[in-house]
Amino acid sequence: MNALGFGKNVTGGGPSPTRIAVTQAANTGSGSLANAIGLANANSRADASLHQEIVIGSPGSALTVKANDTNLVVTARNLTIRAIGGAVIRRNHLVFDCASADNIILRDLSFDSDGTSDPEDCITIDGRVGRQPTGFWIDHCSFEAFRDMCITSYTRDLPGQAPPLLISISSCRFNDRNPSGTASFNHGAVGIYGATKHFPDDTRTNTYATIYGNYFRHTRRRSPRSTQLTLVHAFNNVLDEWGSTIATELQQNGMASGNFGLLVAVANYFQAGRLKEAIEVAGGKKPARLSVPARGARVNQYRNDAIPAVLVGQRIALLRQYASGLGTGTVPPRGDPMTDALAQTIRNTAGARVTAA
User: Fold this and answer.
1) CB-facing half-sphere around the CA of 252: CA atoms within 13 A
2) pLDDT tens column, 124-137
């Protein structure tokens, strides 16, 4: 099965990869996650065509990888990282350097955090220095809220013909044990960011992300958020009781189209808690754009007095956006009409699966 949307060409390690096992909880040494990533990076430098797989844990043993304040930088390509046996990664930060890292799958990984300790982010996909053509697929992973973001990507305009950053995020579960109060002020789920704040001459959409089938449970903000000319196509996601339980706190929203962001939100499910606005859209000097269907089979569903989103700015043409990201003739995924039953299925099936092999 392939990803839907912009990550559809991602195959990771493929069907017959070279396997690297993570069997130890320690931060360093043989069998550690850090050592496995180092080996994968070195192997990829030696043979760029090599396909690899990092497997965390073992059948019948719920390994917990210890917290690590040192960034784990991935430069390998053609790589799958997955867990078996219910393995958990405790407060580690995976940084993917897109100058070389490409064709990456993350699957069945459980990331845990107390929400206040370092590292502040869980996964960073950094395309500000260079980018490769295939992209990333994050599938069936579970995230407890980190001090800042669970998944973040960054891009900027690059000289020449650098390809866009392509991402699919599917069937993941995002949870926040405590989305309220000053200690949780920066908690967020998914940020797809451009860098025009620092590079004001950037003019191109150079990140395209498809986000579908995910469950955002009690997340404080950014579920997901687009900024700075990045495009997010979000469909068939479920958001339950987003925001803080303290109505006057800042930094809380459901989905968001941030400064100059581009967001298409179709057939999603919004079950409001205290915060009722389903999608926040930036205005002022850095206006964002939002496309939502006003009618038809794939309208968003709003429950418990959630405030429906409306079209803001010129409608975003997905056919053109997918052609720009993946080539002429690419058909955007449509998703399924959202119903209460489909929302419950997504709640039940999103997140890391406990596999034996």
Assistant:
1) 27
2) 999 999 999 999 99
